[in-house]
């Protein structure tokens, strides 16, 4: 005979208030928006919510407000899906007490748009966040009562556009390396179908010219490690660079491998930089200098726009630089430098 256990009773808002030492009206305000409450009060309620495992009763809320408490995130089926972007969006939605359904759609922008409109009109979600652009000419077909927010950071293949293509860190990388004594550079580019790859190539060429440095060339890559290996193996032995600016961390790992196969030491003979701050880069010997893009913050702010649109609580947005250079062991002064004066002093 199977023994039946009754489900554990959900903690109530009054129990949270009692444990935090505040009124239930204050907890209700907390659930709608953290703004306007003193830090000490917020901390006590945070502790009480965590200790009791309190979660808003979405069914009761739905009956009271005619809202479902559910959101949908729609993105294409593609190898460029960003797990960190999603994690930031999901964390914000859960902080707002929302349940999220992630929907991957295969096909064109028109197919994705059709799915967004279908979800928005289903009555099953309060709003939809589309991580890629919707097909033109559909704005007037949005159903009433359902919010739809479209992010401006990606195209229909989840390739970075807009702010995420900012290649300013390339200039910072080259200037710092030049000040360490590097004068001869190589850029292993990414797939030029990507705006981000094109922007990094342009920034590289402009920085080389601006600081009066030498470039042994731009090797056209495809974001793969193989393109990094090939770029190094094909270099003329009489004209090797002392620093390589790789389009991303995978390419950079290929550059390091190619250097190893040619008997070059990283960073003694060749400094190498990447882009993306792949977690594994911290553990490479040597650990890789790279550029971190705060996709969690971008995802959080995208979700907050949707939460605000559906009348959810006002949560603290992420603020800070989108891109940040992370300096690690793969960059160092070259073993032989003819000029160590800062580039800005010449």
UniProtKB/TrEMBL annotation:
Domain HTH cro/C1-type: 12-52
One Pfam family of this chain: LacI
Protein keywords: DNA-binding, Transcription, Transcription regulation
InterPro entries noted in UniProt: Cro/C1-type_HTH, HTH_LacI, LacI/GalR-like_sensor, Lambda_DNA-bd_dom_sf, Peripla_BP_I
Span of domain HTH lacI-type: 11-65
Gene3D superfamilies: 3.40.50.2300, lambda repressor-like DNA-binding domains
Name of this protein: LacI family transcriptional regulator
Natural source organism: Kribbella pratensis
């Amino acid at each position: 005979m199977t023994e039946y256990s009754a489900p554990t009773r959900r903690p109530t808002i009054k129990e949270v208030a009692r444990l935090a030492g505040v009124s239930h009206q204050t907890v209700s305000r907390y659930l709608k928006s953290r703004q306007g409450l003193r830090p000490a009060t917020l901390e006590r309620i945070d502790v009480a919510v965590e200790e009791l495992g309190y979660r808003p009763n979405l069914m009761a809320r739905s009956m009271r407000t005619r809202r479902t408490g559910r959101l949908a995130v729609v993105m294409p089926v593609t190898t460029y899906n960003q797990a960190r972007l999603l994690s930031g969006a999901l964390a914000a939605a859960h902080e707002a007490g929302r349940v999220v359904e992630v929907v991957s759609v295969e096909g064109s922008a028109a197919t994705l748009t059709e799915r967004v409109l279908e979800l928005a009109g289903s009555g099953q979600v309060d709003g939809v966040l589309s991580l890629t652009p919707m097909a033109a000419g559909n704005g007037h077909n949005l159903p009433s009562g359902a919010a739809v927010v479209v992010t401006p950071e990606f195209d229909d293949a989840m390739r970075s556009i807009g702010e995420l293509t900012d290649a300013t860190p390339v200039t910072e990388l080259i200037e710092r390396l030049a000040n360490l004594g590097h004068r001869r550079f190589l850029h292993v580019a990414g797939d030029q179908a990507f705006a981000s790859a094109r922007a990094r190539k342009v920034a590289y060429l402009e920085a080389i010219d601006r600081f009066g440095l030498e470039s042994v060339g731009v090797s056209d890559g495809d974001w793969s490690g193989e393109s990094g290996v090939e770029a190094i193996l094909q270099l003329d032995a009489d004209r090797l660079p002392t620093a390589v600016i790789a389009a991303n961390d995978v390419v950079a790992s290929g550059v390091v491998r190619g250097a190893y196969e040619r008997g070059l030491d990283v960073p003694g003979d060749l400094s190498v930089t990447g882009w993306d701050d792949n977690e594994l880069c911290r553990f490479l010997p040597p650990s890789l200098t790279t550029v971190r893009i705060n996709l969690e913050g971008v995802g959080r702010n995208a979700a907050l726009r949707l939460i605000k649109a559906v009348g959810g609580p006002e949560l603290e947005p992420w603020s800070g630089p989108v891109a940040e250079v992370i300096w690690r062991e793969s960059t160092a002064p070259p073993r032989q430098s003819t000029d160590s004066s800062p580039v800005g002093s010449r």
